[in-house]
Amino acid sequence: xxxxxxxxxxxIEISGNTATQRVTITxxxxxxxxxxxxxxxxxxxxxxxxWLTDGVSFVPTRQGNLTNI
Length: 69
Fold this sequence. Notes:
By secondary structure, the chain is mainly β.
């Protein structure tokens, strides 16, 4: 995710106190990687209502070679 050229964000999907968002990162070499961010809304005195990241997962994608079609 460091030194990326572009970041594209999908709409945030919220269900109760949890949320997910897909983020597509385009690297400086032009390759794209997709990540799924998982968040939860906090209910602590110091951060009530804050959304914090619980995890980030790499989403494998299938990229075919169109020259062979």
